[in-house]
Task: inverse folding
């Protein structure tokens, strides 16, 4: 059986040694915090969304993060252009379908990106992931309050349907490539009290994808790292404003050995 805790430590050490360039096409709400989180953990962020340069920029990058949080037609075009170029180059791509299922436009845009881009990982909450499943496959109602079994089943279905790795985040996180299923129980309830933690988790997965050729393992270990940072931050801050800063500090200060010791990943 894989020692996921050891892999988590190795991935964090590799990010800090290699400082991979992570190209983010992300939303206005989280752009600043995401960049600072990537810097804090040891990666190098670039935030570039113009169609005039995304192909050139992604050619320099070690991973591409696509986040549809603040969406427009021009941004979707840029996301697809960058995604196609990354696929051509063999650069890992992760999609965060923010709000998919809330509006037809978000759902359709997410599905279009999936169809036209080779994705290494899709990360979202349970309701976002469920919205991507074919209608005839919706045999169970899965939302953010779904059971552990239903969330894992939804992740498996998405992974198999799109030949990718699916990561569903919530009180317990699930990552699967359609075969292996990893459950991650790191994290803290305070993480839900600040905006952008899901988007930040996606970017951190992108950083781990840049140094680990196994997408499911990269996603699981990245979520354990981010969750552990959330736990440590909660020991030092009790309100949202200070917690945001404490979370950045934890991303910066956690050592690989500390991550290996605090990692809560189970395999099934």
Result:
């Amino acid at each position: 059986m894989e020692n996921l805790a050891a892999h988590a430590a190795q991935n964090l050490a590799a990010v800090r040694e290699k400082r991979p360039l992570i190209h983010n096409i992300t939303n206005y709400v989280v752009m600043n915090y995401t960049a600072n989180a990537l810097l804090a953990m040891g990666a190098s962020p670039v935030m570039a969304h113009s169609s005039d340069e995304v192909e050139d920029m992604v050619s320099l990058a070690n991973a591409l993060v696509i986040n549809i949080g603040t969406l427009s037609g021009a941004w979707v075009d840029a996301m697809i252009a960058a995604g196609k170029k990354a696929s051509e180059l063999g650069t890992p791509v992760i999609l965060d379908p923010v709000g998919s299922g809330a509006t037809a436009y978000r759902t359709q845009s997410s599905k279009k990106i999936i169809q036209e881009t080779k994705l290494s990982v899709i990360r979202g909450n349970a309701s976002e992931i469920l919205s991507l499943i074919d209608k005839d496959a919706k045999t169970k109602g899965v939302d953010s309050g779904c059971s552990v079994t239903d969330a894992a089943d939804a992740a498996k279905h998405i992974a198999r349907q799109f030949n990718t790795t699916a990561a569903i985040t919530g009180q317990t996180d699930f990552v699967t490539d359609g075969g292996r299923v990893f459950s991650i129980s790191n994290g803290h309830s305070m993480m839900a009290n600040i905006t952008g933690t899901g988007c930040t988790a996606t970017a951190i997965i992108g950083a781990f994808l840049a140094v680990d050729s196994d997408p499911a393992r990269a996603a699981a270990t990245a979520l354990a790292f981010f969750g552990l940072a959330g736990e440590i931050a909660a020991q030092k801050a009790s309100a949202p404003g200070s917690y945001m800063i404490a979370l950045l500090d934890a991303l910066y200060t956690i050592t690989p050995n500390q991550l290996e010791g605090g990692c809560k990943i189970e395999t099934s």
